[in-house]
User: Fold these one by one.
Assistant:
Number 1:
Amino acid sequence: MKLDRLNMRRNWEECPKESGNDARWGVMYATLNREGHIRLSRVTHEAMGAPDSYLLLYDPDNEMIGLKPARLAVHRNAYRAIDRGNYGGKRVNAYRLCREFSIDISETMRFHRCGIDKTGVLILDLNDAQPVRKKKALTKF
């Protein structure tokens, strides 16, 4: 750096620290991978009432997946919410849903704008999903 730039006037802006609610796992978050696993963040699962399982729904006209809270011991078609990771996330095995309704997922898709409708169903819009891109490892010279 040039010495004349060392003492120049700057217009600094401070970067705020994450509050916990806006971090990656602090928002409504869901993904669907090619193995048919739907992954939900802890926040998403808790917003759904933290059920032990979900009913898997599909709207072929609008290409939307729905997850409705269920109870494993009560609902015949309930799929278990399996612990995933150290942050309270859950996984729901939805391979059967993908096969039954010919949902072809070639790579992991993230639902950026998933939400819960007025009937309590988590809506995952396949038309609004975006691929999750993994960053390439940096190479050192």
Note: The mean pLDDT is 86.
Number 2:
Amino acid sequence: MRDHALATAAEGAAGPAAAAAARAALAADAAVMDAARAAVVARLTTAMEAPGQAVAMAADTPAGRERRAACALSALAQKNGLGLPVVARRIQDVAALLAPLGLLPGTEAAWVNRAAGALRQLAAELRRRLPGPDDDPLLLDAGPIQALIARIDEAAALCDHTRKAVALAIKGMPALLGAWPERAPGLADLAARPAWAVDGWHRLAALRAVTAADVTTLVRALSANAPSWPAEVQRWSERGMAPPPALPPGRAVATSNLVALGPDPQALAEAALARLL
């Protein structure tokens, strides 16, 4: 869905700002995918070689890496009774699963990594906005801010927890590629969970960029857009998931403050989409 949304936005359906952002995101995704594929091959090669190689893969020459990778792919194919095209497809499939997660060397710019990082930055900013002892509690209530921070922290923690589970599942690259996909049940679902954990939450970071600086307005806008956890997430997490954060009470914030996002809806929509993509 994300790929289709980016492709549609890149054609200009959401305006020029979103189109430029979508093209940049697609280019970044392609670079991360290339790095993920190279990392899968490097990990496979290292695992298939005899211990004590004189030169590490990363330090070898391009020709040396290519030769060693070809030997590793041939050995894997022979061991599992596979053709080389089948091995190549499996490498592509596994790299595509792992690329968005930023688990492999060279894929740190993966969008799931960036989304989780943006959530942590947002939580840190909200912590700085918590009312101090000299603030009037009737004008600035700490409860909704703390609830929102807890929910954002929860999303980032769930992303990290599920990424660690994927990292454990891919430790044996030769065995994984030899078994893929029929004898590697559940990996595709497991690898989708970190992206699912931050899906929707990146709207909050985008909204922060286009919402008025007033903290009560910000908290109301973000709380209203905080996703709710479905039941199955309880099985993914190490801890119970919290209910959606409560909006600040009416006595603390005027309802009209909820919208104060700027005079031009089209400009606002393009700015938000550009940051989302």
Note: Confidence is low (pLDDT under 50) at residues 244-265.
Number 3:
Amino acid sequence: LLDARGVQSLRALSLAEESDAVADAGSVADLEAATSILKRTRRAMPVQAGGLSSRTNHSLDDYLLALDTLTNPVVECGALADTPTLAAHVAQILGVSRPAAGEMLARLEHEGFIRRGVHKDVLLTPTGRVQADRVLRKQRILECFAHTTLGYGLEECYERAREIAPGFDDEALARIWEALGNPEICPHGVPVDPARARVESRGLLALSSVPPATRMRVERLDETSPERVEALVASGLAIGELLDEVVVNVAAGMVAFVSGGTRHSVSLMLAGSALVRSA
């Protein structure tokens, strides 16, 4: 928020990259020395550009997907946040300029899909929520189609669904959903019905914030970044997988767990992209 509003910070410190020196730092001075290179680049957090930014031309539906991601997130403590966002965050997640994002947001505001607060923050209106839910349901059905029928991997099906979405009207989408056997869950574990997805989001935890030595079940993986999905699966995480002996080691920046009788570990940053529920 401070970056987006142009507020000058006194000092920027990023732990975005894993480092043995960071893990071994015993004081603030050691920590700053270990991250001296990283401090040269300021990063707005927690917004991260993911799969949504892989194209340069974005439709109104792309903006609604981005706004849903930013204004309706599942936070690490297990709550579903309903919070406004800023045009700068929308621009960042889509990989477009702020003027381009501002122009499209002005159109969305004119059509009654969003409203703006006193600080130029953005929130979906009830009309916008209905439209966003339509887009989300279409996206998740087409993810199932891309994964099940077209054979795209888990890390590819989100972007492939976005690419083919303009070619399907409501009737074609209904036929695809029926032909697929009316799937209720997308390949990344998110319910196809957006209202159900929001209800079931309550109680989910990021893997990076679970209590020590607990048993969890993987329920959802971050669908917007193919790189993160691929890395999560390579780390032993899969939808429905049971994780035993989960231990979060903040000092080392890692999360360790046992899956299928094998011990695995994943970085804290990556673990934040896996949502789990107590088993």
Note: The chain has eleven helices and eight strands.
Number 4:
Amino acid sequence: MFSLASKLALLIVLLLGAFPSLAADGEKLFLEKCAICHGREGQGGVGIPLALESFLAQTPDEYIHRTIRVGRPGRVMPSFYRLSESEIAAIIKHIRGWQKTPVPEWDATPVQGDAKSGKALFDTHCVSCHGKDARGGKGTGLMFSRPRDLPIAPPSLNNQGFLNSVSDQMLKTIITQGRKHTPMPPASQFGLKADDVNNLVSYIRSFQITTMTGEHMLEEEAIIMHRSPHSFDQTLENVKRAVVDNQFELISFKLGDKHASDKSAHRKKATVNFCNYKMINDALAIDPRIGMFLPCQITIVESFSGVEVMSINPKRLSQLFNNDKLDQACQQMHDTYSQIIREATQ
């Protein structure tokens, strides 16, 4: 006998099959979420080429699923923690559409090896591409660009997102076989035997220090916003004064044009740009992607409902960057924005 839950699950599957529009559209999701880095046809770019046959032949579905969930902290690859299980499954199905070989099985069997011996082998054969302490080679996923002379950026193996996604057996397969059409050679090219490969896998696995699921993200509003009891002009002056009082340098302010869609002559907008160079330099040292959102900016808008003061929410950006080290800096920036806006609207 089927339980009520089982019957409902079966009904959903049948409905999705009968009405494809109800199912997650893998191609659409891929184009929205993945193509900007991995290419519309999976040919690669900033991200690795997902349509590469040697990649697909070595990569179980579970690895792709985990990668989408946890991303690569400190790298361009974010954590898509808001995607549903059906949406992730649809993306994986779309990626598999480029594959001609069978999908490999997930094998979580640990590899037994000597990490100390693996380090010596890594320093001899791998560090030139994957970097010291396996932190990645030239151009590895740190920005939205990579050197033109590289067919593919050697990934950071010492990355908690990667280590939480890959199995020992998948690592062993990649090291043993290499990856065709990339700079990754097979172990035999260096005269490495099975025990050597096991030692390399153990060394790479030794970097894992945490368990990630991709479900730990907290919901954060996209903007910080307060209503001002003052006039537009007074609020603008209040914002500029609060910026300076909070140890920031006022760079510029600009009065915006009336909104084209608003026929009223009473709607106004202004942006105030400012910066604290030490704070920004500290944040850039942690993750250079923060530069995309500089200089700091607060916007004042007047409409029929009143005057509102708003800014982006740095805590929301921190989650998008998927970089735990940046959280403290973004929290500090969030508190500063909030303080400036509160002072301006008191």
Note: Residues 327-344 form the longest helix (18 residues).
